[in-house]
Structure formats: structure tokens, C-alpha cells
Design goal:
Elements: H1 5-9, E1 34-38, H2 43-48, H3 55-67, E2 75-79, H4 93-110, E3 114-118, H5 120-127, H6 133-136, E4 141-143, E5 146-151, H7 154-159, H8 163-180
Parallel strand pairs: 1-2, 1-3, 3-5
Antiparallel strand pairs: 4-5
Length: about 180
């Protein structure tokens, strides 16, 4: 399925469409070698129309630039669901399923060398992870011709600064796979 941006922009497949300000599709170049997938837009993203534009995004892109050597403009950034869940709650299973075709279309069209899942929800949706984040982070998985890696969501690192070192180590794994391909 090709990504139909017009259809996605007016999507009403789930109840999140009733409470969103806008659909947050994603940003970045279509030929990005690194695709970042988060959980869902937050308040700032819902208002601003782009993923990871708040404090979490600032931390994330500082770490990516320092550990991987890529700027935000060189990465494609999206989420598992494209609309903000009320009160920033975790998306429900039916909401994830309703948005899955959009995410799959993005993955197919973008064909990045490495996909980095940010947080457990993204790791489950993109990598098929079934274990805890502590068990899956930093480990590479095959995604067809690409590599998938999970790390903690930057919001978790804002709450627990010890996770910044873990994210840095996971991002060095990303860099290794980008340099090897």
C-alpha cells in the first residue's frame, strides 16, 4: 500500500481522530538512512504537526547527532499512531491496529537502512518485540533488507537520567549498522 497522505490527513479509522488537533504524519527526507519511530504524538506535536518537537525530541536529536553523526534533517521521524491519545496515554490495541497500515506504508516507502524504535510500544509494533525494553534494547533484528533496533523513549530518559547512557550505547549500535551498510 502506498502512503496516501491526503487520506491519512483526514483519517477517521479510530477514536483518536475525534480528539486530535491534526494528524502528525512524520517529517524528514524520503531517502533517509535512519527512520525513527516513536509511540504517539504528544501535546506539542499535535499542535505543531511534527513528531518529537518538545523536550524529548531535543534530547533525542542531541544524542543522535553526538553518537550517530546525523542531524534531525537527515532522519525521517514518525510514530506508531499519527494522532495524539488523550492525556498522552499509551495507544490502545485497536488504535495501533487502525494506524498499522499507515505505518507499514511508511516503512515500505522509506526503506531505511536502520529503523530505531523508541520505547516499548514502538518496539512491539515495528520489531515484534514481546519482552521488556531492558531485554530488547540495543539488539539488532532483521526487517527484510533493513535492521531494526530498539532503545528507550527519550521521555523515559528525561524522567530517569541514567537511561541517557543506555540510549547512547544503543545509538552506537545504530551507527555501527549504518557504517556497515
Amino acid at each position: 500500500m502506498a502512503l496516501d497522505v491526503a487520506a491519512l490527513s483526514s483519517c477517521t479509522r479510530c477514536r483518536l481522530s475525534a480528539t486530535r488537533t491534526r494528524v502528525v504524519i512524520g517529517t524528514g527526507p524520503n531517502d533517509a538512512v535512519l527512520l525513527l519511530v516513536g509511540e504517539a504524538p504528544g501535546r506539542q506535536e499535535d499542535e505543531g504537526g511534527a513528531p518529537f518537537i518538545g523536550r524529548s525530541g531535543q534530547l533525542l536529536f542531541t544524542l543522535i547527532e553526538e553518537e550517530v553523526g546525523l542531524s534531525r534533517e537527515q532522519c525521517y521521524v514518525t510514530n506508531t499512531v499519527k494522532c495524539r491519545p488523550p492525556a498522552n496515554r499509551t495507544p490502545a490495541r485497536d488504535e495501533l491496529e487502525a494506524c498499522r497500515p499507515w505505518l507499514e506504508a511508511q516503512l515500505a516507502e522509506l526503506a531505511p537502512r536502520v529503523t530505531l524504535a523508541l520505547g516499548l510500544t514502538a518496539a512491539r509494533e515495528v520489531l515484534g518485540a514481546t519482552l521488556s525494553m531492558s531485554a530488547v534494547h540495543g539488539r539488532a533484528r532483521h526487517l527484510g533488507d533493513a535492521t531494526g533496533i530498539a532503545t528507550y523513549h527519550p521521555a523515559a530518559a528525561l524522567r530517569d537520567p541514567a537511561l541517557v547512557a543506555v540510549m547512547r550505547a544503543d545509538l552506537r549500535v545504530v551507527r555501527t549498522f549504518l557504517e556497515a551498510s
